[in-house]
Amino acid sequence: MYNGIGLTTARGSGTNGYVQRNMSFVSKSREKVSYKTEEDIKKLDALANKKPNQGILAHERKRMIELKCLEMQELMEDQGYPEDEIESKVALFRKMLQDKEGVGEKEVPKDDFGRPLFAIGTKSLFPYEIEIFCSKPFVFICQN
Questions:
Q1: Distance between CA atoms of 46 and 35, rounded to whole angstroms?
Q2: pLDDT band at 133 (very low <50, low <70, confident <90, very high)
Q3: Nearest Cα to Cα of residue 15 among 5, 7, 3
Q4: What keywords would UniProt list here (predicted)?
Q5: Which of 37, 41, 90, 101 lies deepest, with the highest CB count within 10 Å?
Q6: What percentage of the chain reaches a pLDDT higher than 90?
Q7: pTM exceeding the 0.90 threshold for the entire prediction
Q8: Cα–Cα dist 126/131, whole Å
Q9: How far apart are CA 81 and CA 90, in angstroms?
Q10: Span 96-121, mean pLDDT?
């Protein structure tokens, strides 16, 4: 007998006393179906429909521009243009594509150390504002 389960002795039972698990038993937890609530469905939809990463999209646009420039460069090399003319025309073509797509580098104001003065998108990371106030013992520090 193990944990009160099974026969105390196998004598007279016509078995060897080995206890097996009943595999045909269906527990109550398996019968119970948990349905999703409206809140759960909204959370799943929000996760599935999140906004694309702007960095990845910008990289893909730049990659497509470089691909077009490379194709033009190979075409001009096959036609026998000189290297300096190829470079100048490809640079002009690249500039035209960047202006058309709006991929050009945007100037971000930076401080003395080269760091951006403000980070785009950090407001959503920190939804709560921290209030800093001066109490009476620290008035001399705050009046600088």
A1: 19
A2: low
A3: 7
A4: mRNA processing, mRNA splicing, Nucleus, Spliceosome
A5: 90
A6: 26
A7: no
A8: 13
A9: 12
A10: 72
